[in-house]
Backbone:
């Protein structure tokens, strides 16, 4: 697995629970993670943003995960948000990331590393 050092051109994939229960909380957690990353100038893919509109309701689970995993494969690093360990979708994504030799790091840890290397928390 790669070292979780982020370079400027890297894109990170946000991994976390997207279960059928607590959809609003899950969506908000992904939105907050995306905001924390983009406020620091870090490019990221929020899986929720891949399915704007109604078309995602037409996809079966297999096609849905194919879309998710194809975007994950294009990223340089995976960041996990709380609760990922208990979500089947997240476990699948982590297994794919491991198979592809992607760095996997907790969101909070990545933010601390980034902030320490850049001297401030949020890009202005």
Residues:
């Amino acid at each position: 697995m790669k070292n979780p050092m982020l370079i400027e051109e890297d894109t990170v994939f946000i991994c976390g629970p997207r279960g059928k229960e607590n959809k609003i909380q899950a969506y908000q957690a992904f939105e907050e993670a995306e905001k924390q990353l983009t406020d620091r100038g870090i490019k990221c893919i929020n899986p929720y943003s891949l399915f704007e509109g109604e078309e995602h309701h037409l996809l079966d689970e297999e096609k849905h995960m194919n879309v998710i995993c194809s975007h994950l494969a294009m990223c340089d690093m995976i960041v996990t948000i709380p609760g990922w360990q208990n979500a089947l979708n997240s476990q699948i994504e982590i297994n794919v990331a491991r198979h592809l030799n992607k760095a996997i790091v907790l969101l909070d840890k990545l933010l601390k590393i980034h902030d320490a290397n850049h001297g401030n928390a949020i890009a202005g």
Q: What stands out?
A: The chain is about 45% helix and 15% strand. The mean pLDDT is 84. Residues 11-118 form a domain with the Rossmann fold fold (CATH 3.40.50.10400). Helices lie at 23-39, 61-74, 88-99, 107-118.
